[in-house]
Design the sequence.
């Protein structure tokens, strides 16, 4: 994990390599411990069930992050998941319109969203 301060936002970047992340608890403690306000999570680290909206995992995961007054950015290529689910496509589109949860290609795209 690494921490970055950008435009007044303290970001916890979760490592690209490691065990699958299946609950928000897997990252919230680290974010709080480092006083981060945004958690950047590699899409490949998320348990694949996260991308099946009928499992309710994504909703519970992201709601818990928001309840802790954190933001989340899921970074990486999720096109294969999007191709299988119009509901997920709609969810990603709506999320990206807001300020709490984003699905983005990479760190560069994330940094472009943050205030300068």
Sequence:
């Amino acid at each position: 994990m690494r921490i970055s301060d950008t435009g007044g936002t303290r970001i916890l970047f979760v490592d690209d390599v490691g065990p699958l992340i299946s609950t928000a608890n897997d990252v919230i403690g680290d974010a709080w411990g480092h006083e981060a306000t945004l958690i950047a999570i590699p899409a490949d680290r998320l348990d694949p069930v996260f991308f099946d909206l009928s499992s309710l995992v994504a909703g519970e995961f992201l709601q818990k992050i928001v309840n802790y007054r954190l933001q989340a950015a899921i970074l990486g290529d999720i096109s294969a998941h999007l191709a299988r689910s119009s509901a997920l496509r709609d969810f990603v589109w709506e999320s990206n319109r807001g300020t709490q949860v984003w699905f983005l290609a990479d760190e560069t795209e994330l940094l472009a969203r943050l205030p300068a």
